[in-house]
Design brief:
By secondary structure, this protein is an alpha+beta fold. The chain contains 34 helices and 59 strands. It has 5 domains: 294 residues, Methylamine Dehydrogenase, Chain H (7 Propeller), CATH 2.130.10; 204 residues, P-loop containing nucleotide triphosphate hydrolases (Rossmann fold, 3-Layer(aba) Sandwich); 89 residues, no CATH class; 165 residues, no CATH class; 125 residues, Rossmann fold (3-Layer(aba) Sandwich). The strands form 16 sheets. Strands 43-44-45-46-42-47-48 form a 7-stranded antiparallel β-sheet, with helices on both faces. A 6-stranded mixed β-sheet has the order 31-32-30-33-34-35, sandwiched between helices.
Length: 1146
C-alpha cells in the first residue's frame, strides 16, 4: 500500500473494479497501476510498472488490463495473477492512449512516435501500423470505426483494417486530447476548451458544448449522456440530445486528466493524486481513492474461488479433449430475378436504412450477422473461443452431478458429430491452446456465467450470400449453391408478378427448381418485395403463386402464419424498426431446424479453422489444412471438416477435381470478385469498357472480343485478375467448366496476341446471336440425331454453356481437319475432325444433329454423351435426364435410348416410341456402330494400335504395380488368385521395359515397396499414374503419396510428372496416347546397359511363358477401365495371331 504520489493520468472501470494509472513526467517517482473494489473501496491490486516508467493510460477487458507508459512501454497484465502477459514492443515514444477492441489492442504514441498500432492480444504481434504524422493523444473504437485525436488539431476516422482515413475533422483549433464514439455519435475534447459532438456515420458536426474554462483532457459516452474532464478541475455531464449541461462536478483540486462512464457510475482521475467515484444521477461524490485504503485480495472481488478453479480445469479439459460443441452457423442464400430487391431485403434484415437506388450486385456479395443483433458483423471469427466457453460450461454443469468415477469415458475416434457425454477423456489429448496463452485469451467468468445453462439458447450466426440476379451470373451461381447447412430466400417483385405474370413465374420456377436440384430438403422462404406499392394485393399474389407454381404443396416452403400466406411480403422502404421482424423470425426458426446448424463438432475442428483465419490470407493449399488438422489429431477428418465449413458458407472447398480439391479458399469474397471480373453484367461491363487502365494496357480490343465472342486472351485475364493467382483462377474456371482452352486462330485480336493462349468463356454467349450460324444450321442435312431430354425436371442455366466449353476444347485437340466451332446463344456448329454436328437448346431439350456426311457419327455421338456427363457431373450431378434417339427414317419418331438398348439385347423387332406409335429396331442400328452410346467409364473407345519393339532379354513392356487395399476396396473387388511369389515379381520387373506405379490412398504396401526397390535397383524407368477423382475412396492428396513413400523413392514423385488417371471417354483417349508415348520413350535397360529404343528382336512377338494375357485379365478383371486400358493398348493389337505386347502383372 503506497499513497498515490502524483497525477492520475488514466482511469478505467468494470462492474466490480476501478483502475488507475499514475505517474509524473518530471520526477518519475510514481509509475503504478492500481485497482480498487467498487463495493467497499478496498485496494485490491497494486503494481509498479516493470519498466519503471510513468503510467499514462489504462484500459480494462474482463480480468485483463492494458497499460501504456513513457518510453514506448505497452503492457498486457492479468489482474487475477498480477502477471505481465505481454510486453508489446514497437512504439518509439510515450504511449498516451490504449484501448481494447475484441482480440486486439490499439495504442497511440506521442510526439516522438506519431503512430497508431494494432496488436493481436493473443500473440502480442503488431498487425497494423498507421503513421499519422502527429501526436496521438487519444483513441476510441466502435465496430469498424477507429477514431484518433491528434496534436495537429484534427480528428481522423479510420477503418481498423487499413491506414486510409475515412474522415478528417478539422473544426478544433488546438490539440485534440480526447475522443469517444458509439453507434449514434462521436465526441471530441480539445485545448480550445470545447467539446464537439458529431453524428455517426456521417461525422457531420452536430453541436459544440461550451462551459469549460480550460483545456478539455477527457471525454466519455454512456447512452444519451456525455462526460468531460478539464484543466479547470471540473467534470461536466451533458445531455447528448440537446447539449444541456446536467451536472458540474466539483471536488478535484487539479486537472481532470481522465474520466470513465459506466451505467450510473462516473470515475475520474486527477493531477491532485486522487481518483473519485461519482453518482451520475445526482452528481454527488461517493468515494475518494488515494492509495491509503484497506487492502484485501483481488480474488475476493474477481470471484477466483473454488468455482473459478473448477472453471479453469473444465476449460483445460475441454480444450485437451477437443470437446464437441454446436457451432451454430448457417448459410443464408438470397436468390431471385435481377432488380427484384434482394439486396434491399438483406438491408432490411440487417436493420439498415433503406436506399431507394443502389448499384446492382456483382456476382455474389457476402455479409455476416447473427440472429440476436441482426447487425452487420465487423469481423469473421471461427467461433472457437465461444464454443470453448460453452464446452467448458457444460463440463462444469455435468461435473456437479457426476462422481469422478463416472467421468472416465473414452471419446470415440471421430468426434465430428453425434451426441456425446460432455465429460470424457479422449484417447489422445492435444494442447489446442498453450497454457500460458489461456489466461490471455479466455475470461473464466464467462464459463462460470454459462455453467448450468442449456445450449439451446445460443444464437445463430449467418453468412449471407446475396446472389446477383442478372442472367449472365446464373452459370456461376450453381457452383456455390450448397446442399446442407443453408436456408434459401427466393425474392420476387410482387408488382412485376401482377403486371408481367408469365415472366415472373418463369423466374420463380427456375429458382425453385434450382434449389430443389442442389438442396432438395433445404428450407425455402419466398419473399415478395415492393409491398409499399399501392397496386399490390398480397392475397392476389398468393393466388398466382398457388395456381402457377403449386407453392402451397411444396413441403420445403416456409409459410407465413401471421399473414396466412406462402410467402413474406416486405416493404424495404419502411423505416419502422420492426418491419422485418417476421422475416427474421422465419429465417432464425428455419436455421434452427437444420441438422448442420445444431451438429456437434470437435473443438479441434474449430481450432483448425481458427488457425487458418489467423493466417489472414485469401486461400491456402489443402496441404496446409492437412498439416494443421494432423497437428490437432484430426488429420483423417480434413476432408470432412472442410466440407462441413463449406456447406455453412464459411469457406470454399470444392472436391469435384484434383485441382479444386487442392486449394481451400478462406475468403470466398476474393474468389467471387475475381470470377465476376470475367463474368460480368452490362452495367459493370460499361464501367470496364471506359476504364483508362484497360486502355493504357492496350487491352480494349481484347475486352471487346471477350464480350462479343466469349474469347479471352491470357493478357486480358492477367489484367482483370490483377496478375494474382492467374494459374489457379484459370484452372478453377476450367474445372468448373466456366472456361475452356480455345485452340484456334482468332483474327479479331491484335497481331501481337494472336499466338498467345486463348480461352472460351461460353456463358458470355448466352444472349448473343449470329445470323450466319443460324443460316448454316438450316443448311445442314441432318444425319443421326439424338436428344438430351430434361423435361422430367428442368434444364438449368449453365448446362448448355458447359457442353459448348467441353466440345470446343475437344474440337481444338483434334490434330487434323481442325476448324473453329461456330457459337452463339443456344446454338453451335462443332467439328470433331471430319465429324460435323449442330447443337441446339430448345426449352428443356438439347438437340444434337450430325451432318449426313459426318465421319463416324456414332463415335462422335458417343463422345458427346461422355462430354455431357462431364458437364453435368461438374455442377449438376443429381440432374435427371433421358437420352432420346430420332429415327433415321422418320424425323417425327423419337425413342428412348434405354428402351432401344433393351430391345436389341432381347432381340425384339419393335419398340415403343415417345408418344404414340412404335419404331423398328433395325432403323436405329447406325447409332450402335461403335457399341453402346452410354458406356463412358467402362469402354476406352478407339485407341491406335501400339507397336512397341522390345530389346533382347526383355519379355514385357510394363510391370503393373501390386493393387493396394484402398484401390481394390474402392472398386468393390475381392482378393484374386494368381499373386506372384517375391522372386517371380523381381524376375518380372527385371524382364520388363518399365515399371508402372498406380498411386492410391494405401498404395505403399510391403509388396509395392519391394517392387519399387527392385525397379530402382534394376534402374527401370518408372511411370506414375495417380487417382485423380477426389470422390473415389482411393483418392489422396499428392502430398500424402510423397509423405508415405519410402525414403529411397521420394524423389520420383512430382505431381506435374505423374499422370492423372482419366475415366471419361472424352478424356481417356488423350490419357492413353500420353501413356503409350511415355512407354515408347522409356529407355531399354538390361543388365545395367541402355539400349536404343528402335532395336527389334525375336522376343517382340513371343508370348510370355509366365504371364499370358488371359492371366492378366483374370488378375485385373475387377479394375474396370484399367483393364480396358491395357486390353486396348496391349491386347487388341494382334500380329499373326499372337499378342504383340505383354504386361507383367503382380
Amino acid at each position: 500500500m503506497v499513497l498515490i504520489q502524483d497525477s492520475v493520468y488514466g482511469v478505467a472501470q468494470t462492474a466490480d473494479l476501478v483502475l488507475a494509472a499514475s505517474g509524473n513526467h518530471l520526477t518519475r517517482n510514481d509509475g503504478f497501476l492500481r485497482a480498487w473494489s467498487k463495493k467497499d473501496g478496498a485496494l485490491v491490486f497494486e503494481m509498479k510498472t516493470p519498466n519503471n516508467q510513468e503510467a499514462n493510460t489504462v484500459a480494462v477487458q474482463g480480468k485483463l488490463a492494458a497499460v501504456g507508459t513513457d518510453a514506448g512501454g505497452l503492457l498486457l497484465i492479468d489482474l487475477a495473477t498480477a502477471t505481465v502477459l505481454q510486453t508489446l514492443q514497437g512504439h518509439t515514444g510515450h504511449v498516451l492512449s490504449v484501448i481494447f477492441d475484441g482480440n486486439e489492442i490499439i495504442s497511440g504514441g506521442g510526439a516522438a512516435d506519431k503512430t497508431i498500432r494494432v496488436w493481436d492480444k493473443i500473440s502480442g504481434l503488431e498487425t497494423l501500423r498507421i503513421d499519422v504524422g502527429a501526436r496521438v493523444g487519444c483513441l476510441a473504437v466502435h465496430e469498424d470505426l477507429l477514431v484518433a485525436g491528434l496534436g495537429d488539431y484534427t480528428v481522423r476516422v479510420f477503418d481498423p483494417a487499413s491506414d486510409d482515413p475515412r474522415h478528417v475533422l478539422t473544426e478544433a483549433t488546438d490539440w485534440v486530447r480526447a475522443v469517444a464514439i458509439d453507434a449514434q455519435r462521436m465526441v471530441s475534447g480539445s485545448d480550445d476548451n470545447k467539446v464537439r459532438v458529431y453524428g455517426v456515420p456521417s461525422f457531420q458536426l452536430v453541436r459544440v458544448l461550451e462551459g469549460h474554462t480550460d483545456w478539455v483532457y477527457s471525454v466519455a459516452l454512456e447512452g444519451d449522456r456525455i462526460l468531460s474532464g478539464s484543466n479547470d478541475h471540473t467534470v461536466r455531464v451533458w445531455d447528448a440530445r440537446n447539449g444541456d449541461a446536467l451536472h458540474v462536478l466539483h471536488g478535484h483540486s487539479d486537472t481532470v486528466y481522465s474520466v470513465s462512464f459506466l451505467g450510473s457510475e462516473i470515475v475520474s482521475g486527477s493531477g491532485d493524486n486522487s481518483v473519485r467515484i461519482w453518482d451520475a444521477e445526482t452528481g454527488a461524490s461517493t468515494r475518494v481513492l488515494d492509495g491509503t485504503e484497506a487492502v484485501r485480495p483481488i480474488e475476493e472481488v474477481l470471484g477466483a474461488t473454488a468455482t473459478t478453479a473448477a472453471a479453469k480445469e473444465a476449460l483445460k479439459a475441454a480444450l485437451a479433449n477437443g470437446d464437441p460443441a454446436e457451432l451454430g452457423r448457417c448459410k443464408l442464400m438470397v436468390v431471385g430475378q435481377g432488380a427484384a430487391g434482394k439486396t434491399s431485403v438483406v438491408r432490411s434484415l440487417l436493420g439498415m436504412k433503406p436506399e431507394p437506388t443502389h448499384k446492382s450486385t456483382v456476382g455474389v456479395k457476402l455479409t455476416r450477422t447473427d440472429a440476436e443483433s441482426w447487425e452487420k458483423s465487423k469481423n469473421f471469427d471461427s467461433g472457437f473461443e465461444r464454443q470453448a466457453y460453452r464446452a467448458a460450461a457444460l463440463r462444469m454443469a455435468v461435473q456437479e452431478e457426476q462422481t469422478a468415477s463416472e467421468m472416465q469415458q473414452t471419446l470415440p475416434r471421430r468426434v465430428s458429430q453425434g451426441s456425446f457425454n460432455p465429460v470424457f477423456t479422449a484417447e489422445v489429448q492435444v494442447e489446442l491452446v498453450p497454457e500460458a496463452e489461456v489466461a490471455r485469451r479466455f475470461d473464466i467468468e464467462e464459463i462460470e456465467d454459462m455453467a448450468g445453462k442449456t445450449q439451446s439458447g445460443q444464437k445463430i450466426f449467418f453468412t449471407i450470400w446475396d446472389y446477383a440476379g442478372q442472367e449472365v451470373f446464373y452459370a456461376l451461381h450453381h457452383i456455390f449453391l450448397t446442399r446442407e447447412g443453408g436456408v434459401f430466400l427466393i425474392v420476387f417483385d410482387m408488382q412485376e408478378l401482377l403486371i408481367k405474370q408469365d415472366q415472373a413465374v418463369e423466374y420463380l420456377s427456375f429458382w425453385l427448381n434450382s434449389v430443389k436440384l442442389h438442396a432438395p430438403t433445404a428450407p425455402i422462404i419466398v419473399v415478395g418485395t415492393h409491398y409499399d406499392e399501392a397496386l399490390v394485393d398480397a392475397n392476389e399474389v398468393e393466388e398466382i403463386l398457388v395456381e402457377n407454381l403449386s407453392i402451397d404443396e411444396n413441403e420445403n416452403i416456409v409459410t407465413n402464419p401471421a399473414g396466412e400466406l406462402s410467402f413474406f411480403p416486405i416493404d424495404n422502404m419502411s423505416r419502422a424498426p420492426g418491419h422485418a421482424s417476421e422475416l427474421r423470425a422465419a429465417v432464425e426458426a428455419s436455421a434452427s431446424s437444420l441438422e448442420a446448424v445444431s451438429r456437434k463438432i470437435s473443438l479441434r475442428w474449430l481450432k483448425v479453422l481458427d488457425d487458418l483465419l489467423k493466417l489472414d490470407c485469401d486461400h491456402v493449399p489443402f496441404g496446409t489444412v492437412q498439416e494443421l488438422a494432423t497437428k490437432y489429431h484430426a488429420g483423417d477428418q480434413t476432408d470432412e471438416l472442410l466440407s462441413f465449413f463449406h456447406e455453412l458458407g464459411m469457406l470454399v472447398y470444392l472436391r469435384a477435381t484434383n485441382t479444386l480439391h487442392g486449394k481451400v479458399v478462406l475468403n470466398p469474397q476474393w474468389l467471387l470478385d475475381k470470377l465476376s471480373r470475367v463474368i460480368a453484367d452490362k452495367i459493370h461491363v460499361k464501367q470496364m469498357r471506359y476504364n483508362r487502365e484497360l486502355q493504357n494496357a492496350g487491352l480494349k480490343n481484347d475486352f471487346t472480343v471477350l464480350r462479343k465472342r466469349g474469347i479471352a486472351t491470357l493478357s486480358l485475364l492477367k489484367f482483370l485478375w490483377n496478375d494474382e493467382e492467374v494459374d489457379y483462377l484459370r484452372k478453377f474456371m476450367h474445372e468448373t467448366m466456366l472456361m475452356s482452352d480455345w485452340n484456334f486462330h482468332e483474327k479479331s485480336l491484335p497481331r501481337n496476341r494472336q499466338n498467345e493462349s486463348l480461352f472460351l468463356v461460353s456463358s458470355l454467349l448466352k444472349n448473343s446471336r449470329d445470323r450466319k450460324l443460324e443460316q448454316d444450321i438450316a443448311k445442314i442435312q441432318s444425319g443421326l440425331t439424338r436428344v438430351l431430354d430434361f423435361s422430367e425436371f428442368f434444364l438449368p442455366d449453365g448446362v448448355f454453356a458447359r457442353m459448348l466449353s467441353l466440345c470446343a476444347q475437344y474440337s481444338g485437340e483434334v490434330k487434323k481437319n481442325k476448324r473453329a466451332p461456330q457459337l452463339a446463344g443456344d446454338r453451335a456448329i462443332v467439328r470433331f475432325g471430319l465429324s460435323v454436328f449442330a447443337l441446339e437448346q430448345d426449352d428443356n431439350k438439347i438437340w444434337v444433329r450430325m451432318a449426313q456426311d459426318a465421319h463416324k457419327p456414332a463415335t462422335a455421338l458417343k463422345t458427346l454423351v461422355s462430354i455431357f456427363r462431364g458437364a453435368r457431373d461438374a455442377v449438376f450431378r443429381d440432374l435427371p435426364w433421358e437420352l432420346l434417339l430420332q429415327s433415321p427414317s422418320d424425323d417425327s419418331v423419337l425413342v428412348r435410348y434405354d428402351d432401344m438398348a433393351d430391345a436389341r439385347r432381347t432381340e425384339v423387332a419393335e419398340v415403343a416410341s415417345v408418344g404414340v406409335g412404335n419404331a423398328l429396331v433395325t432403323d436405329f442400328e447406325p447409332f450402335f456402330e461403335d457399341g453402346s452410346l452410354t458406356e463412358d467409364e467402362n469402354d476406352t473407345g478407339t485407341v491406335g494400335q501400339a507397336s512397341i519393339p522390345l530389346a533382347a532379354g526383355l519379355k514385357y513392356h510394363v510391370f503393373l504395380s501390386h493393387p493396394s487395399q484402398s484401390w481394390t476396396s474402392c472398386l468393390g473387388c475381392q482378393e484374386t488368385e494368381g499373386n506372384l511369389a517375391e522372386d517371380a515379381m523381381k524376375r518380372g520387373i527385371r524382364e520388363s521395359k518399365c515399371y508402372l506405379l498406380f498411386l492410391s490412398k494405401t498404395v505403399f504396401s510391403d509388396a509395392v515397396k519391394m517392387e519399387l526397390e527392385a525397379a530402382l535397383r534394376e534402374e527401370k524407368p518408372i511411370l506414375v499414374v495417380h487417382e485423380s477423382d477426389p470422390n473415389r475412396p482411393g483418392f489422396a492428396p499428392f502430398s500424402a503419396y510423397i509423405a508415405a513413400a519410402p525414403a529411397s523413392s521420394k524423389h520420383l514423385f512430382k505431381e506435374n510428372e505423374s499422370m492423372p488417371f482419366q475415366r471419361r471417354l472424352y478424356l481417356a483417349e488423350a490419357f492413353y496416347k500420353e501413356l503409350i508415348s511415355r512407354i515408347k520413350k522409356s529407355p531399354y535397360r538390361w543388365g545395367g546397359r541402355e539400349w536404343d529404343s528402335r532395336v527389334q528382336t525375336d522376343e517382340f512377338a513371343q508370348p510370355g511363358t509366365m504371364h499370358r494375357m488371359h492371366m492378366l485379365q483374370k488378375r485385373l478383371r475387377y479394375l474396370g477401365f484399367w483393364v480396358a486400358l491395357f486390353a486396348t493398348v496391349f491386347a487388341r493389337s494382334k500380329l499373326d495371331g499372337r499378342t504383340s505386347s505383354h504386361i507383367a502383372a503382380a
